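Step 1: inspect the first sequence and its C-alpha cells.
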Amino acid sequence: MTNVVAGLLSKNGRILICQRRADQPHPLKWEFPGGKVEAGESPGEALVRELREELGIESEPAIEAARYEFTYPGKKPILLIFLRVPAWRGVLENRIFETLRWEKAEFLSSYDFLEGDAPFILQMAVRPTEQTSPPARITYMPPSAVSPTTDTNIGQILALLAGKGYAVTQTGPDGLRIQETDSGIAVQAVLQGEILFLSVVCATVPSSKITAGLMRKMLAADSGISTSHFQLHDAGGGERSVTLNNFCKLQDMGADDEDDILSCVSFLLADVVHAAELIGKDLR
C-alpha cells in the first residue's frame, strides 16, 4: 500500500495549507504539504524531504497526529499519515504550489480540500479551541465497512433531511452539506458524538466592514435572530467570514430527535434570511 504523509505546520494559531496548481492532478484543490513515502524511508524522513523540496525548509522530527486508509474512485487504497511539525529552520518559500495560506483550524472546512483530507478536516473543524493541536489520533474507514458506534449516525440524518426535500450530500464520515432547493442556501453539518453542529457562511467581506456598529447589531438581544449565533472567522487575505451557527443534542433518533434536527435546520435557514435584512447593507 502507498503511504502518503501530510505536514501540519502551525504559526500564530493558524495552520499552513497549500493550493495545487491548475496543471497538477486534482487542480486547484487545497492540501497540506507532503507527499509519497519512498522505498526505505520512514514517514518522518519522507516528510522532511518533502518539506525541503516543496517549501525550502528543514523540519524538526514530527509527531504523528492521525492516520487512516482512503480510496479514491478507481484507485488502490492509500494510507494517509498526518504529522505535526513542532519547529523548522529556514524561510518558507513556495516552490511548487499555486498559493500558500495560513488558516485557522475551524475554518478549513470551507476550503475545497482533497477528498482524502476530508475526514481529518472534519475532526479539526469541531475543535475550535485546539487550533494549533490537531487531534491526537483518528482512524477512518468507509461507513460501509464499519458498524455505527452510537445510536445516531450521519446516514440516518441524511435520509431524514433528503426525505423532507433538502438536497443532501455527505462530505465525510460525519459531515453533510444540506441545501434548501428553493433558496439555494447551503448548511454545513458535522456530527460529533451526540451533537449535530450546523453552520452557514452569510458573507465573506474585507475586515474593514466589521465595524463596532455592525457588532452591536449582531450581539443585540433584540436582533431578531431566534436560535442561532453569529461567529467571525479569519478568511485570509484581509477578509473575514460571518457565519450563523446552531446545534442540537441527539439521543436515539426517535421522533423527538427528528423534530429537533428539522427544527434546527429550519430555524437556521430562517435566521440567515433575517440576518441578510439585519446586516446585509453594512456588508455591501
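Step 2: inspect the second sequence and its C-alpha cells, then contrast the two.
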Amino acid sequence: MIIIQSGKPVSATCSISPGLLTFSAQVGSNQITINSNTNWTLTAQQPGSWYLLKEQGVPKILPISSNGSHTYDVEVQANPLTNLREVNLLFTCNNNTQSINISQAGQINNPPQSPCWPTPVVTDKRHIVIIPFDVQIDINGSTSLNFGDWIGFFYKDGNTEYCAGQGEWKGVDLPITLFGDDNLSNGKNGFLENEKFIIKICRVGTTQPIDVTGIFLIREMEDTLKKIYSKPMDSVELSA
C-alpha cells in the first residue's frame, strides 16, 4: 500500500522595491530589489540609453525574464539637458504588474553673474528700469557700453552698498528688475521707498565696478535710463 500525503500549497511571493527612484542631474546609482519565489519579467515602457541595470557588476538588457530574488544596481548617466527624463519599469509576476518610476532631474542653468558684485536678493517687491539700445554714454571719456558690460543698481544698508538689480549689456533694450526691501529679514535686502539708486558699471573683463550717474525718463511702473555718465554719485536724479 502506498500512502501519499500532499503538502500545503506554497503561495507565490512577488514584490519589487522601491517603487520610485529619483536622481539628480549628475551621474548616480541606486538599487531595486525583487523578492520572489516564482517566475517574473521586468520590462521598460520607454527605451533609453541613459540608464542601465547591473547585477553584481554585469549589465542586464531589458526585458529580463527570471525567477527568484534578485538585486539590481540602477545606474544613470549625467543629464546634459534641462528637462526631467524618466522611465517606467514594469514588474510582472503571478499575473500582477507593478510599476517602478525612475526619474532624473535636468541641469539647472545658473544665470550669468557679474564678476564685480554678489547676486541680488530676490523679493516680491519689484521695479523695472529699462536701458534702451541707444542710451547715451559718457563714462571717463567712453561713449559706448561694451557687449558683456554689467549695469548694477545698489542700495545702502549702513555704510555698505548692496546690489538690488543687475543686467548684462547685449546691445539691445535691457530691462532690469530692481528688488525692494521686504521687511521680513533683519537688515535691508532691497530698496526702500523713495531711496536713491546707486548705479555702477562693471566693464567686461574687469572685477572693479565704476560709479556712474543716470538721467531717467520717469514712467508710472518703469523708468527708462536715457543717459549714463561719470559724475559724483550724490547727483543721481531719480528715487525709487
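Step 3: confirm your contrast with the notes below.
DSSP finds no helices and 18 strands in the chain. The chain has a mean pLDDT of 84.
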